[in-house]
Amino acid sequence: MMSRNRCLVALALALVLTATASAGLTDSLKQGTPEIKSMGALAFGPEGVLFVADTRGGAIFALATDDTTASEVKEGLKVASLNEKIASLLGIESKQLKINDLAINPISTNAYLTVSRGTGADAPSVLVKVDRKGKISEVALKDVKFARVAINNVTTKNRQEAITSMAYLNGKLFVAGLSNEEFASNLRVIPVPFKDSDKGTGIKIYHGAHGRFETASPVRTFIPYDIKGEAHLLAAYTCTPLVKLPVSKLAPGQQITGTTVAELGNGNRPLDMVMYQKNGKDYLLLSNSRRGLMKIDMTGVDKIEGITDPIRGGKTAGLKYETIKGIEGIEQMAKLDNARAVVLSRSKDALNLETIDLP
Amino acid sequence: MLSRCTLLLTTAFLAFSSGPTRADHEYSIRLLLPRPGQPAVIEVQGLDARNQEALKRSNWSNEKWQALLSVKVGTGSAAQIAARPCLLGTYRIHNDRLQFTPRFPFEPGLPYHASLDPARLPIPTNDPPRTQRVALPPPPPRPQAFVERIYPTRNQLPENQLKFYIHFSAPMAQGRVYRYIQLLDAKGKAIAWPFLELDEELWNPDGTRFTLFIDPGRIKRGLKPREDLGPALEEGKKYTLVIDARWNDAEGRPLRETYRKTFTVVAPDEACPSLEKWQITAPPGGTRRALEVTFPEPLDSALLQRLVWVVDPRGEKVPGTIALEREETVWRFTPEKAWTAGEYRLLVDTRLEDLAGNSLAKPFEVDVLRKIERTIKQETVARSFRVTGTSGR
Question: Do the beta carbons of residue B79 and residue A99 sit within 8 Å?
Fold first, then answer.
């Protein structure tokens, strides 16, 4: 009982501290109409604030969704042929619609998607909300509270940087980008609330294979994860391996090499990651273009010093993982709660929004 | 009174429309063509004055408006169309007509179905719901898009070739494009998983150039993809990069033809390009003759446009145009104004890469046990050249 009380006190304290740390983010945003040229990667911060990457405009936006009431719906989200329904709302056929990203508001648990209306370079982007009852609506971006930060992104006639992943952690937004010209790591750390004076600093991330071959490999996707009380990013490089990067070292001017914790094998294209607990253990669920879902057991991640020996013959090393069968064609994935994830999976031309139990 | 009226839709479209033409009175649904500053709208004529007034004063939700006049998109059976959500848009009474303005402009050539349900009017009638199909004229046909060229243009490429730039004649459709790209071996068999496939496809801003990376996991030594499958490209072998004609342009039409680039693979290139090995041919003063810089190997076509430039004796960047020749081994710079005598400098950003991703600053991969590769810390390096002759005046 005593122990339970202590836990409750600790939980309450943690909630208060979290609230204090994030208080004022919405207040820091200004009312207006953001001029967003394209909407791609999404990440939620505190207070239902949604970060939206604008690749074409070379900027990140923070938008107040005002969607801060927890949904009372218990059933999972499920919308068949979501792409066709969104296309119909926007007055086009589904083949003209491109879904760019999916995020779940951790407070309301409603889903948000960025879509392009059309397939051309100048296609307008739309922010779409799917509430827990499956109702689809456009999030109007007129007269809303927002902030914008231009990222230090050289855009010329032909150069453009695709923002591949974003995550918010303790007052910082981590942004991974990939240039369409030079092959270089480009991970930025942007202070939140955004400040004009600090547009984020690029950090050079390296990847070493077997303690020998080192490249300035770009990070494709990542997720924040606490390892023994120390904040880390678990990141997948474009060259496949999964690494851990201590957040304390992701500071301006630093050059760091990620520690390989798992080698995911060929034909992998890690898309999205969800971290969850089950039976007292931490698991990372990784959606993958060709291998379906991979469930990675995080046991021992703190002790891994890095994979240094070559792995041959289809074997794997580092953290143990299993491939979850029966769920194919996942194009987007986001965590709904600690027991469920929302996925957007393709079946022929239809993209279905479904809820799956975390395995 | 109204309930006894026979309703019929007239098809008085300014744009073309298909579907039955009805000749009765009262209501008509039509599509008004877009005018400068005004999008195309769907308009219903024939509402009685009492309903117009009631609608003007109403504070209806979107759902209620949509129940009265729904607008849906696409082809299919009546049941399929009816099952689709209504287009987003706004409704109003304007000049005694009910107008629907879509949130996004109607797409030329695409059919839309407007359905009026008089039973949902503020003062309902018993007339049956009616649906009218309308469409804006399709856009005039334009020449089909095609692949103009693929960089590198050379047909001998290193085993660790990193990327290709595919240049199209017109903006292309984006999204799931990797299904249109294949790498075939000499027997025409597709190589498994050779490319880095990214959801966030790497396009230039106008959608005419696509950057295709070979999977770095198949290039970098010691990684599992390469250990299991080997490098995507192997020295001594012949390959064909195929761009499938089924790839649509931004207007939804396929490419004019399938494009093939056949090349042979030579030894991997693990060395950084070196400015000292470049040959600079200085132009004579008083002319606008091109400055010519020759490299011992082809360099990255896109980066050569951006990361190499010339500064004049005062240290100012010289405006001009860049052309690449002889398989990207020659960089030619033609100034806007004639050269004047003096010491110029060629500046190079050390991020400039060769075909294998080795930059001036750092090789693509560093063998840390064999620290023979040099790394340059500066952001730019420079070489001087002297323009002699007349002052240009």
Answer: no
Pair (A197, A91) in one structural domain: no
Q: Is residue A51 part of a domain?
A: yes
- Note whether residue B302 is domain-resident: yes
Q: Is A264 on the interface with B (CB under 8 A)?
A: yes
In this structure, the answer to whether residues A136 and A160 fall within a common structural domain is no
Q: Are residues B98 and B163 in the same domain?
A: no
* DSSP-H helix ranges across chain A: 2-22, 82-90
**Inter-CA distances, A107 with A18, B7, B197, Å:** 13, 50, 33
How close, in Å, is residue B126 to chain A by CA atoms? Answer: 29
Q: What is the CATH number of the domain that holds B356?
A: 2.60.40.1220
B282/B208 same-domain check? no
- Does A92 sit within 8 Å of B107, measured CB to CB? yes
Domain boundary among the residues B243, B266, B289 is at: B266
| B294 and B189 belong to one structural domain | no
Q: Which of A192, A207, A334, A321 is nearest to A268 (CA)?
A: A321
Instruction: Tell me the pLDDT band of A339, cut-offs 50, 70 and 90.
Output: very high
Secondary structure of A129-192 as H, E, C letters = EECCCCCEEECCCCCEEEEEEECCCCCCCCCCEEEEEEEEECCEEEEEEEECCCCCCCEEEEEC
pLDDT at B362: 86
Which residue out of A183, A204, A316 would a mutagenesis test of the B interface target, given it has the greatest number of B Cβ atoms within 10 Å? A183
Total tally of structural domains belonging to chain B: 3
CA distance A22 to A36: 25
Whether the CB of B337 is below 8 Å from some CB of chain A: the reply is no
Give yes or no for a cis peptide into B152 (omega within 30° of 0).
Answer: yes
B335-368 residue pLDDT tens? 999 999 999 999 999 999 999 999 998 888 776 6
pLDDT < 50 regions, chain B:
1-25, 392-393
Tell me what the mean pLDDT of segment A246-265 comes to. 78
Domain presence at residue B285 = yes
Q: Which of residues 3-62 of B touch A (CB under 8 A)?
A: none
Question: Chain A within 8 Å of B202 (Cβ-Cβ)?
Answer: yes
The set of residues, in sequence order, having a beta carbon less than 8 Å from that of A89 and lying 6+ positions away, is A128, A136, A138, B85, B86, B87, B88
Q: What total of structural domains would you count in chain A?
A: 2
In which domain, by residue range, is A65 found? Answer: 28-150
Q: Flag if B222 and A290 touch (Cβ within 8 Å).
A: no
* Residues of chain B positioned with their CB less than 8 A from the CB of A89: 85-88
* Residue B142 lies inside a defined structural domain of this protein: no
Q: Which two tokens stand for residue A272?
A: 């999205």
Kindly state whether residues B261 and B367 are assigned to the same domain.
no
Closest CA to B145 of B59, B246, B277, B33: B246
Give the domain-ending residue among B113, B134, B155: B134
The 10s digit of each residue's pLDDT in A41-74 is 999 999 999 999 999 898 999 999 999 999 999 9
Q: Which residue has the higher pLDDT, A314 or B236?
A: B236
The answer to whether the CB of B330 falls within 8 A of the CB of B360 is no
The type of residue at A108 is S
List the structure tokens of B126.
């018993």
Q: Interior CA angle at B172 toward B166 and B177, to 5°? A: 70
The answer to the question of residue B309 being in a domain is yes
Last residue in a domain, options A150, A175, A204: A150
| Residue of B379 and A239 predicted with greater confidence | B379
**Chain A residues inside the 8 Å CB shell of B205:** 56, 121, 155, 157-158, 160
Q: Is B84 on the interface with A (CB under 8 A)?
A: yes
Find the domain containing B325 and state its range.
Answer: 275-387
Q: What residue type is assigned to position A308 of the chain?
A: T
Residue pair A215/B365 in contact (Cβ under 8 Å)? The answer is yes
Taking residues A220-228, what's their average pLDDT?
91
Closest by CA to A149, choosing from A191, A205, A210, A119, is A191
